[in-house]
Specification:
By secondary structure, this protein is mainly alpha-helical. The chain has one domain: dinb family like domain (Four Helix Bundle (Hemerythrin (Met), subunit A), Up-down Bundle), CATH 1.20.120. The chain is 63% helix and 3% strand. The chain is built from 6 helices and 2 strands; from the N terminus they run αααααββα. It has a two-stranded antiparallel sheet. Helix 3 runs parallel beside helix 4 and helix 3 runs antiparallel to helix 6.
């Protein structure tokens, strides 16, 4: 029994260590920050009671659950572009209507795991590739895949900030930020 327990622990440790291995220094560094983003975002999403998931501060704003599902879609989109892979989800899966808190938390977790795996497995050559890109602020026409990973992180932080405000507007003290 002791040998079996030791082998099981060794297997689990090896599996975890393998997940942390990255093709690049960028991937290793980014993964550390992205894991913090995942933990804190999930803590925020868990803090909102399910009865308040439809809350939105004004009519033209996203509801809390729509914002969470927006993050799901964005995590998949950014990571798929920046790793040259097809996204495993399509837009029809991202509709927040009818989704429970449990389903949303699960999908958000999976999207963070997918994007973490993408950044850990991307190589230096792929990070230098470019993709068409444009937004109203920069009007740029291309971004490197490395830049797209950074945009993914900035985007998640932006919406997480809004989610924090939604919690406060519902009388909920958000979980403390972790570093």
């Amino acid at each position: 029994m002791r040998i079996l327990s030791t082998l099981l622990c060794l297997f689990l440790w090896t599996s975890i260590a393998a997940q942390e291995k990255s093709e690049t220094r960028f991937g290793s560094d980014f993964a550390k920050a992205w894991k913090r983003h995942k933990i804190y975002t999930l803590r925020l999403v868990e803090a909102m009671p399910e009865k308040s998931y439809d809350y939105k501060p004004e009519d033209n704003a996203r509801s809390f659950k729509e914002m969470a599902m927006h993050l799901v879609g964005a995590n998949y989109m950014f990571a798929s572009i920046a790793s040259s892979q097809d996204s495993p989800v399509d837009r029809t899966m991202l509709n927040a209507d009818g989704k429970t808190k449990e389903q949303i938390v699960k999908m958000l977790t999976e999207s963070f795991d997918y994007s973490l795996n993408a950044v850990l497995n991307v190589n230096e050559e792929t990070l230098k590739k470019t993709a068409p890109w444009g937004n109203p602020i920069e009007q740029s026409t291309t971004r490197t895949f490395k830049e797209i990973f950074h945009v993914m992180r900035e985007h998640a932080a932006h919406h997480r900030g809004a989610m924090t405000v939604y919690l406060r507007l519902n009388g909920i003290t958000p979980p403390g930020f972790i570093d």
